[in-house]
Design brief:
Number of helices of chain A: 6
Number of strands of chain A: 0
Largest sheet of chain A: none
Number of helices of chain C: 19
Oligomer: heterotetramer
Radius of gyration of chain C: 21 Å
Strand content of chain A: under 5%
Order of helices and strands of chain A: HHHHHH
Chains: A mainly alpha, B mainly alpha, C mainly alpha, D mainly alpha
Number of domains of chain A: 1
Radius of gyration of chain A: 18 Å
Shape of chain A: elongated
Largest interface: B-C, 34 and 32 residues
Largest sheet of chain C: 2 strands, antiparallel
Helix content of chain C: over 70%
């Protein structure tokens, strides 16, 4: 089955890296143009899901075991709330980026980038998890 | 006629909404219900986005020479709503999968019969 | 630091949820959740003190000023509900460990606690936020996590219950955002206080009336107002015991809070009850809920289901109180919100203890339990007496104020209906009492011991609370009366 | 001890007693000693307030605010003093009796029995001392709940049904009607304090006052005004000491006590007589007196006959209060006390017969007086007191009620009292006659029995003696009751 789909395999091998790069572009471009964490996360996950579809879920699992996707999911949320809490600790309000650096502009920049990164991580983690869990829920429960 | 064409976006919203709502109510298949739910939610997304459009306005990116642009806030809101919708769908589907495991069917009416049997068994064993 | 408390309240459980997800050790995750819940209780208590001292607190997320940024606003009503939610959360969590170990498969326990934290985040967020769209987000956070928690129940019907709740809940939430969208269309703002100032000028338009209709129906779905209650009985019956206790005591209460916020804050400057005949509709539905749900409750064989129906009836009382739109009525609604949370939590925690030992909560499982599990059954009876409205329990205080509100409004038939419906409560509560105390235990019954102290203690804290706040209701009533005053005369300030 | 502390102590003693009893459950002798000691302490505390109240003192105690502007408060006034004295004294006697009865019949769950008894007594004393309607209502309900386990003590299907009727009627009248009346009163008057002369004067129209009065009278289900009297015979399934407590002292007396209290302190006698003149109450109570007597006449079960007799005697109190004449109110207060002693004697006798011979029907009692002379002697005294024959205490209260009725020209009331006295005589005297003068029916089962256990005999002798003594020395109660008018 897989052997007969050699065109798909070749094309997807070629496509997956650009998709991922595009995801990163969308991710880091998000603070001053169209883009952002949600979109980037989904695009990144799409690359991964494509891989899983073509090369089989078992292989995909090797790349992203359950603990990894879960950690990805969790760490994105942690990053997001973490930035907010750090801002609070520095004396600002929750998610008040201006506290993150001395210069106003770069503080805002830093803040939104980190936040978007958190969002991106979580979204991609979530999408991958959803996909993999639907494929093999029981394996996902047992393998660690 | 003016109201009909002029407010065409709302008509679309209403048609979508009712279609989705009808699917949720009338379909017995749990997956189809979720699809209906999605159509229902999408109608709201359309509603928000079409509401923010301003005639002749561009994308809300600040560049020289552009005076009129659409309201970006509803887009942001809808982005959030979409995420919520995705989460709901995922959860709904996950539940459906587990219902399939537990009941061996995803037809609403068949599940209702099985549930009734469960209930009678419960009564039977205790009385 | 104290200025950061409003945000911390919500952020703390949100921050801990992913940590719980990563760590996954059931024991540790439970400890973590326990600490978080007690901390949120401490925070919400200090917030309540602040609000009582110095009035409404506002907090800007990200430092953005009100109409643009998301604002957290905490007045007396909000602070009161916040305390209810976090107090119930912390007690239920103290109780949870044994019950959860028994009812949820070991490999899913971490998931349960993570969802609990998220649900808590959502409920606290709803209470504290001053932004109608942010409220929707928190509403969905809490709803989604509660669907998951319900689906973790042992019976396979838990899955379908969760599924149906998901469908109904999503429809409700979507109705809510349609309403929000319509309001945004007319006003261009999502901030509650801002909306409240803009609303009177445009209240007569059809768009706003449609918005109000969508909002009301959507929220009433969430709070299970009869006849939109169909999701509730199964969800409560098949959910794990402590989930039932937590949701019954908090989720519908918070939904009522949303209704209060929308009707009396957002539409505060408008006499909403005149529009669309909302008052009559709500009052009629509330009375129907009181009678229909209580009557159905009488015929249930499963105690959890029985009290689930009773919850629907009690929601009727709360809505009835609000629908008087008088200060007493509003206070009655708010105080019953608190009181019902306490008594239902007592009962469902008690049923959780029964489930732990007997494996089920049908009436037959309770035969002879009065002597075999005396403390548990006594607590359930205290909760039951409170439902009836016997003096020296919180239920009496609520009923006193409800009847007073009805008489003040010159609606004596309503007053009569209130007392009549509480007579129905006697019947179903007494089915439990007779089963526990007057029926002999089945002959082949295995010996049953009382539940461990870690469960008994929270149970009795709740039971004693329902006696204490029934005997000394002055503090809670003062807050409720103040809150009613703010809602009716001030809006968000 | 200051009066406040005494009140506090009197309220807490039975509660502490209940806790101790439940702790001593395993050692029966200790448990029963605790019960007796608690009862004696309670009585001495209550009686120590007597001189103060007699001098016109009204010691009071405010526990705290329950709802804004509505406190849990206690005030000792003459009527409450009267009720508390009777209840606490009869608890001693009743405990003595219970010990003999419960052991003699090998009842189960005796600890629960004594605990509930103590709690019921605590509620009764709290009702007696209640300073406002709210406090009274709270403990009124507490009394209902705490006596429910006593009624259903046997745990049988019959007990369960009896318990349902008992609880169903008492709770639904109190929540359905009395509660409504109290909230309404509070809204009209702004206070619920018991105030001499009433709190409603000039605050509401006559119609509302009339409706309120009806709500109160039917809402106080414990007073067993028809048609809400069914709980009393239903509660007969309880062990006899409970019946004695329920039907002679705590529960029914709490009912009529509340009725009198409401008429005197919420409405005010004068106010009622000038505004609405509640004739209907006279008719209903009169009807209850006669109808209950007739039912009593027709029932063969001894306890059932006594229960219907109680229903009719309770309506004496209500009717006396409804006449609204000073002397009849005095009579009403006296009748609460007098009937308590007489009726408890009768119940004690019934229980004593049951313990010794397991006989429950009137028709089985032929010739039993020769086997149980003390019991049947006491029974005869109690019966005479019910009829109102001197030298028993029943005469005194009937005298005052009649006097009041004559004064205010209520000839109907006079007629009812006379007719009902005749009825009383016709359902009590045959029992006495049969017990002493008829030949015993040969029955193989219960031939060899003598008197009931010693404590039982003591208890009923004491109450019978007091029933007679009260005729000669009625001052102790009359002096108190006089302060009411």
């Amino acid at each position: 089955m897989l052997n007969r789909a050699s065109i798909l395999r070749v094309v997807s091998k070629l496509l997956i890296p650009p998709i991922m790069v595009f995801a990163l572009y969308v991710q880091f471009h998000g603070d001053f143009g169209p883009g952002g964490g949600f979109q980037a996360g989904v695009i990144f996950a799409a690359a991964f899901i494509l891989y899983a579809l073509i090369f089989g879920v078992d292989n995909a699992r090797k790349v992203a075991p359950a603990w990894l996707t879960r950690t990805l999911l969790a760490s994105g949320l942690l990053l997001y709330t973490g930035v907010g809490v750090v801002a609070m600790m520095l004396g600002g309000d929750f998610l008040d980026y201006s506290m993150l650096a001395t210069d106003q502009k770069s503080a805002q920049h830093l803040g939104i980038t980190l936040i978007e990164l958190g969002v991106g991580t979580t979204v991609s983690g979530a999408m991958i998890t959803i996909f993999l869990i639907f494929d093999g829920r029981l394996r996902a429960e047992k393998d660690d | 006629m003016e109201t009909f064409y002029g407010l065409f976006n709302y008509w679309i919203v209403i048609v979508l909404m009712m279609m989705g709502f009808y699917m949720v109510i009338a379909q017995h298949n749990l997956i189809k219900k979720i699809i209906g739910l999605n159509v229902f939610q999408v109608s709201v997304f359309v509603f928000y986005i079409s509401m923010s459009k301003i005639k002749g306005g561009t994308a809300p990116i600040l560049t020289d020479g552009i005076e009129i642009y659409s309201n970006p806030l509803p887009h942001v809101l809808i982005l959030t709503a979409i995420v919520v919708g995705v989460a709901t769908t995922a959860l709904g589907l996950a539940l459906t999968v587990r219902i399939k495991d537990a009941f061996d069917t995803i037809e609403d009416d068949e599940i209702a019969i099985l549930e009734k049997e469960d209930q009678e068994r419960e009564r039977g064993t205790i009385s | 630091m104290s200025t950061q408390l409003p945000a911390l309240q919500v952020v703390l459980p949100l921050l801990m949820a992913p940590i719980a997800l990563i760590i996954r050790n059931p024991r540790f995750v439970w400890m973590l959740t326990l600490i978080v819940t007690w901390t949120t209780l401490a925070i919400s208590l200090s917030l309540l003190m602040q609000v009582l001292d110095s009035g409404t607190i506002t907090y800007r997320i990200g430092g953005w000023a009100a109409p643009w940024g998301i604002e957290y606003v905490l007045d007396k009503v909000g602070a009161f509900v916040l305390v209810i939610v976090s107090a119930i959360g912390s007690l239920v969590m103290t109780y949870a460990r044994r019950s959860v170990e028994q009812e949820i498969p070991a490999e899913r326990i971490y998931l349960f606690y993570t969802m609990f934290l998220l649900c808590l985040t959502g409920l606290l967020g709803i209470t504290i936020t001053g932004d109608v769209f942010n409220l929707f987000v928190f509403l969905e956070i809490s709803s989604l996590s509660s669907y998951v928690m319900i689906s973790l129940g042992r019976d396979r019907r838990a899955l379908t219950a969760a599924y149906r709740y998901l469908i109904m809940g999503t429809i409700g939430a979507t109705f809510y955002i349609i309403g929000v969208g319509l309001m945004y269309m007319m006003t261009g703002t999502l901030n509650m206080a801002d909306l409240a100032t803009l609303m009177p000028a445009i209240a007569d338009t059809r768009v706003i009336q449609a918005a109000l209709a969508f909002l009301t129906v959507g929220i009433c779905l969430k709070l299970a107002l009869f006849p939109l209650h169909l999701w509730l009985p199964n969800a409560y019956t098949y959910a794990p015991s402590m989930v039932t206790a937590f949701l019954a005591a908090t989720a519908t209460k918070v939904a009522v809070y949303i209704l209060i916020r929308i009707i009396f804050t957002v539409f505060g400057g408008v006499n909403v009850f005149e529009i669309l005949g909302l008052q009559n509709i709500l009052m009629t539905l509330a009375i129907f809920a009181m009678f229909a749900a209580s009557t159905i409750a009488i015929y249930q064989d499963n105690a959890k289901r029985m009290f689930a129906y009773s919850s629907i009836a009690q929601v009727g009382y709360i809505i009835l109180g609000l629908s008087f739109a008088s200060e007493t009525g509003m206070a009655a609604g708010i105080i019953h919100l608190f009181n019902h949370a306490i008594m239902k939590c007592t009962i469902f925690l008690g049923l959780g203890c029964v489930a732990l030992r007997m494996g089920g909560v049908s009436i037959r499982d309770m035969y002879g339990l009065g002597t075999r599990m005396p403390w548990t059954m006594a607590a359930i009876v205290v909760g039951g007496l409170s439902l009836i409205g016997i003096p020296m329990t919180v239920g009496f205080v609520s009923k006193w104020y409800l009847v007073r509100a009805a008489l003040e409004a010159d609606m004596w038939p309503v007053a009569v209906l209130i007392v009549l419906s509480s007579l129905l409560a006697i019947i179903y509560v007494w089915r439990i009492v007779e089963a526990a105390y007057l029926k002999p235990a089945p002959e082949n019954a295995e010996p049953v011991s009382e539940v461990p102290l870690s469960m008994l203690l929270p149970l009795w804290v709740m039971a004693l609370a329902s006696i204490y706040f029934g005997l000394d209701a002055t503090n809670t009533l003062t807050i409720a009366l103040d809150a009613a005053d703010i809602l009716l005369n001030g809006g968000l300030q | 001890m200051s009066p406040e502390t005494t009140i506090q102590a009197a309220l807490l003693t039975p509660v502490i007693g209940a806790v101790l009893i439940s702790l001593c459950g395993r050692w029966t002798n200790l448990r029963e000693t605790v019960t007796l000691v608690t009862a004696v302490i309670l009585f001495s505390l209550v009686i120590s307030l007597y001189p103060l109240v007699l001098e016109g003192g009204r010691p009071s105690l405010v526990v705290g605010e329950m709802l804004p502007n509505l406190s849990i408060a206690f005030t000792v006034e003459p009527l409450g003093m009267l009720f508390a004295c009777i209840a606490s004294f009869l608890w001693i006697v009743n405990s003595l009796y219970s010990i003999g009865y419960m052991r003699g019949n090998n009842e189960k769950n005796q600890t629960r029995f004594y605990v509930c008894f103590a709690i019921a007594l605590a509620s009764s004393v709290a009702i007696a001392f209640a300073g406002n309607m709210m406090t009274l209502f709270i403990f009124y309900e507490a009394l209902t709940i705490s006596t429910y386990p006593l009624v259903t003590h046997a745990g049988t299907e019959k007990a369960k049904r009896g318990g349902r009727v008992y609880l169903g009627i008492l709770l639904s009248t109190s929540i359905g009607l009395l509660f409504l009346a109290i909230v309404w009163t509070w809204m009209i008057a702004g206070t619920l304090d018991f105030t001499p002369g009433g709190i409603l004067e000039g605050k509401a129209s006559n119609t509302i006052i009339g409706i309120l009065l009806a709500l109160y009278m039917f809402g106080i289900g414990k007073a067993a005004l028809m048609p809400f009297h069914r709980w009393l015979p239903a509660a007969m399934v309880a062990p006899t000491p409970v019946s004695a407590l329920l039907h002679a002292v705590a529960v029914v007396k709490a009912g009529v006590f509340t009725v009198v209290k409401v008429i005197i302190y919420i409405f005010g006698v004068d106010f009622l007589s000038v505004t609405i003149d509640p004739d209907w109450l006279l008719y209903i109570s009169g009807f209850t007196i006669l109808a209950a007597s007739i039912i009593a006449l027709r029932s063969d079960n001894l306890k059932r006959r006594l229960a219907y007799s109680t229903i009719s005697q309770l309506s004496y109190v209500i009717m006396a209060a409804a006449i609204l004449a000073p002397l009849s109110v005095l009579g009403a207060a006296l009748h609460i006390a007098v009937h308590a002693f007489g009726k408890i004697t009768l119940f004690f006798a019934a229980g004593s017969i049951y313990t010794a011979s397991h006989k429950t029907e009137v028709s089985q009692l032929d010739g039993i007086g020769r086997r149980m002379p003390w019991t049947m002697g006491a029974f005869a005294i109690g019966a005479l007191s019910m009829i109102g024959v001197p030298p028993t205490a029943g005469f005194i209260s009937k005298w005052y009620i009649l006097h009041g009725a004559f004064d205010s020209g209520q000839m109907l009331a006079v007629g009812i009292i006379i007719v009902s006295s005749l009825l009383n005589a016709s359902y009590f005297l045959p029992i006495v006659h049969a017990a002493f003068f008829k030949k015993e029916i040969e029955s193989p089962n219960h031939d060899d029995h003598g008197e009931a256990p010693f404590t039982v005999v003591i208890a009923l002798t004491v109450t019978a003696t007091i029933t007679i003594l009260l005729f000669f020395f009625p001052g102790i109660f009359i002096d108190l009751a006089r302060q009411l008018i």
